[in-house]
């Protein structure tokens, strides 16, 4: 991974990571998924990275998204 990228979160659910990545990109935040899961057995983690300059904004968007999910 290039310098100045920070891990935003880790999950075992690649769909969750992809949905979050798409939401971030819709708000102008560049995001990268690093899939560290075993392709045969689906164990391991999926990590989502953003550039350090966008970390605070990205965390705020995720917190807002999670808040909306809990209201439903």
Commentary on this structure:
By secondary structure, the protein is α+β, with helices and mostly antiparallel strands. The chain has a single domain (5-71), classed as Hypothetical protein rpa1041 (Alpha-Beta Plaits, 2-Layer Sandwich). It has helices at residues 14-26, 55-71, and strands spanning 5-11, 31-35, 46-51.
Entry keywords:
72 residues, alpha+beta, Alpha-Beta Plaits, three-stranded antiparallel β-sheet, 2 helices, 3 strands, 25% strand
Can you describe this structure in just a few lines?
With 72 residues, the protein is of the alpha+beta class. The protein has 2 helices and 3 strands, in the order E-H-E-E-H.
**Within the largest sheet, what's the order of strands?**
1-3-2
How much helicity do the residues have? 40-55%
Mean pLDDT rating = 89
Low-pLDDT regions: none
Number of helices: 2
Assess the beta-strand content as a share of residues.
25-35%
Look at the helices and sheets and give the structural class.
Answer: alpha+beta
What is the number of beta strands? Answer: 3
Question: What number of domains?
Answer: 1
Quaternary organisation: single chain
Termini separation comes to 36 Å
List the helices and strands and how they pair.
Blueprint: E1 5-11, H1 14-26, E2 31-35, E3 46-51, H2 55-71
Antiparallel strand pairs: 1-3, 2-3
